[in-house]
Write a structure and sequence with these properties.
Structural class: mainly alpha
Helix content: over 70%
Distance between the termini: 40 Å
Order of helices and strands: HHHHHHHHHHHHHHHH
Radius of gyration: 20 Å
Largest sheet: none
Shape: globular
Oligomer: single chain
């Protein structure tokens, strides 16, 4: 339905040619804006309900005060793997975790894994590359989220969250205490939940639109054959180069996988292609624009840097084991 709407607006109302760069860019912008806004509204509202009833504070205390020997990172990554969201769509859940006081490293483990691994990506991966490579990819995606989340958690970066997030956290604590004390029924909580959800949506909406616009321009105007020229098997720098080139090209795993199949068919090593895919779906300018509302620039750069290094390392490992 959203595809038909985007096509109608782009090719009929605006009368852009389907094969033109402008047509590709505008269709991408319209489709992804509609999709992400629908997800944003739904996810933020659902997370508001969950935060109102789920004992997040008990979970926070449990995760903070018990030695789980990495299990908390695995649980967060596994939860990310079963949520079918792209990097931008998973940010509202990330905000919900931060709002609930879940340790930052654990929330990062979720944020990293969620766009990399989901049921759609698994089905497409199995169909295009077989189950062996699919299992390796899924396992490495979860492990990457756990590792990067653990590293980020050990850096003690909580002070680099924005004042906006801290205000949300304080409001959540006060509202939850008031609700618990008064035993407010759901119908009376609903207006407060809706108000909080709308506040979050208004806060991130400009960043969503700016980020998607950047991704749309890159999506429509990157020259055909550009990547095949620089990512050949004999280039030792192909993996880090593929990751750097992928960051502006925001897409979901399901959207980029057919491209990965074409790249591999043209002779690009599978590990390099997978690293490229991970960077496309896990790191993007649109995601950075969304996170700017939640994190300081230093925290965003640290997050991107750690994840980039982990993806590059994974790409080299893939090229060794997937020969």
């Amino acid at each position: 339905m959203l595809t038909e709407l985007a096509n109608y607006i782009t090719f009929h109302l605006l009368q852009l040619a389907p094969e033109s760069a402008a047509g590709h860019a505008v269709q991408f912008f319209v489709y992804d804006t509609a999709k992400i806004l629908l997800l944003l509204v739904g996810i933020v509202f659902i997370m508001g309900i969950i935060n109102a009833y789920f004992p997040v504070d008990r979970l926070r205390i449990y995760l903070s005060n018990n030695k789980l020997y990495g299990l908390e990172y695995f649980l967060a990554s596994a939860f990310g793997a079963i949520t079918p969201f792209c990097s931008c769509s998973s940010v509202p859940l990330f905000i919900g975790f931060v709002k609930g006081g879940i340790p930052l490293g654990v929330t990062f483990a979720y944020l990293i894994t969620s766009p990399l691994v989901n049921e759609v990506a698994i089905a497409l991966f199995a169909g295009l590359f077989g189950w062996k490579i699919t299992v390796i990819y899924v396992s490495s995606g979860i492990l990457l989220g756990m590792t990067a989340g653990f590293i980020l958690g050990k850096l003690n970066l909580e002070n680099y969250l924005t004042d906006w997030v801290r205000a949300i956290q304080q409001n959540a604590i006060r509202e939850e205490a008031a609700f618990e004390e008064a035993h407010v029924p759901f119908r009376d909580r609903l207006p407060v939940i809706a108000k909080d959800a709308w506040g979050i949506i208004k806060g991130v909406l400009p960043y969503v639109l700016i980020g998607i616009a950047i991704g749309a321009v890159m999506h429509g105007y990157v020259p055909q054959g550009f990547f095949e020229r620089y990512l050949s098997a004999d280039n030792i720098w192909a993996v880090p180069l593929s990751v750097i080139l992928a960051v502006p090209l925001y897409s979901s795993a399901s959207g980029i996988l057919p491209v990965i199949q074409v790249l591999v068919a043209k002779g690009i090593p599978l590990g390099t292609a997978i690293a490229f895919m991970m960077a496309v779906v896990g790191l993007s300018f649109p995601e950075a624009m969304l996170l700017k509302k939640v994190m300081s620039m230093k925290l965003i750069l640290t997050f991107f840097g750690v994840v980039t290094l982990c993806i590059i390392f994974s790409g080299y490992i893939f090229n060794i084991i997937l020969v």
